[in-house]
Amino acid sequence: MKLPQSSTQQVPAVSILPNHIAIIMDGNGRWAKKRFLPRVAGHKRGLDAMRSIVRACVERKIQYLTLFAFSSENWRRPEEEVTFLMQLFAYALESEVAKLHDNNIRFRVIGELSRFDEKIVTLVKNAEKKTQHNSSLNLTIAANYGGRWDILQALNRLVKEKPHTLQGYTEQDLAPYLTMGLIPEPDLFIRTGGEQRISNFMLWQLAYTEFYFTDLLWPDFNAQALDAAILSYQQRERRFGRTSDQLVSSPEIPPLAPDR
Ligand code: IPE
Ligand code: IPE
Ligand code: MG
Fold this sequence. Notes:
Undecaprenyl pyrophosphate synthetase; 6 strands; 260 residues
């Protein structure tokens, strides 16, 4: 079986462009408030920004884009806002999936779907099925997603399927059960909206990701802003535990001992 690449098990190949970009799209409410508009107007504009960033990633030949759309903690928001976000999600699924498919984009949703309306669950399942063989950008939307939930659901499924182990479970045992499965870990994490926190996003997968924070509010984030983030990424030295001297003298260090 193919195993997921793990930045803690072996030093991953690093290329000039991030292979996987993960984004916390934050600041919709503040964008609206600044314009004396209701918060939901910010969410609508946030959907426009999503469209333009998806397009920009396709143009830049990014392989994986993962967008945090709704966290497991966002249910704590006022009921009207949650209802609007659900309607917007359903609308986006209805209106965008054909376009994604025409652009050869593979679409997935990660998160606990059971809490959504059946209509949304069906739209998600159909969209995933329709686009499953597409081979340009892999677009993943995290909805009712939480990093702790992800680790726990993986652990529970692992223990259920393989209840007995002599040596204890390894990273390789757990990783395939995580919602991102075989998808490579993010190279670049972007959070808009000025906050510098993870807010329970991909806790496991961000172990060695480069972080980029911008004060731009999500509806204002565009292709140019994406390029600024990529440029910042390109100036980082990704050491994965090694020293800078090691990187200069032999960038191709052998993998760490497997199966730790
Ligand atoms: C992010 O924008 C979108 C969601 C969490 C759904 P916010 O709605 O969090 O916007 P701010 O942070 O209040 O400005
Ligand atoms: C994180 O944004 C979740 C999404 C963007 C979907 P929040 O706005 O909910 O984060 P906190 O609560 O301010 O940390
Ligand atoms: Mg916010």
